[in-house]
Automatic annotation (TrEMBL):
The lineage of its organism: Bacteria, Pseudomonadati, Pseudomonadota, Alphaproteobacteria, Hyphomicrobiales. GO terms for biological process: glycine betaine transport; xenobiotic detoxification by transmembrane export across the plasma membrane. It comes from Devosia epidermidihirudinis. GO terms for cellular component: plasma membrane. Its main location: membrane. Keywords: Cell membrane, Membrane, Transmembrane, Transmembrane helix, Transport. It is found in: Cell membrane. GO terms for molecular function: amino-acid betaine transmembrane transporter activity; antiporter activity; choline transmembrane transporter activity. This is Multidrug transporter.
């Protein structure tokens, strides 16, 4: 596997873990709490593998940016949480930043 695949797995793990944080009720509900802990363990393991070939700043920007977008989408459907226009604009700017990094930055290839 390459760094991008490891990063994708790390992002999925983080999104799952973060999405279950609310259901864990402060780590008082067993199953969601286990999902959170396992999810973050998977996340950090695969993120560490991704950083062997992806610069840490670039990897973290992609990981956090994509995570914010995906968690926001899941929170909308799972918890009915809505975002106002400024929040949507902010998330759009984060998405734009991730796209600029991936499409135009040469830093991602070093």
């Amino acid at each position: 596997m390459n760094g991008a695949a490891y990063l994708a797995i790390a992002i999925v793990g983080e999104v799952i873990a973060t999405s279950f944080l609310r259901a864990s009720a402060g780590f008082t509900v067993l199953v969601p709490s286990i999902v959170v802990v396992v999810g973050y363990c998977v996340t950090f393991y695969f993120f560490s593998l991704a950083l062997q070939t992806i610069p840490v700043g670039i990897g973290y920007a992609i990981w956090s940016g994509v995570g914010i977008i995906l968690v926001s989408i899941i929170a909308f459907f799972a918890y009915g949480q809505t975002l106002d226009v400024p929040a949507l604009i902010g998330i759009g700017l984060i998405l734009a930043g991730v796209l600029v990094i991936n499409l135009f930055s040469h830093s991602a290839t070093h």
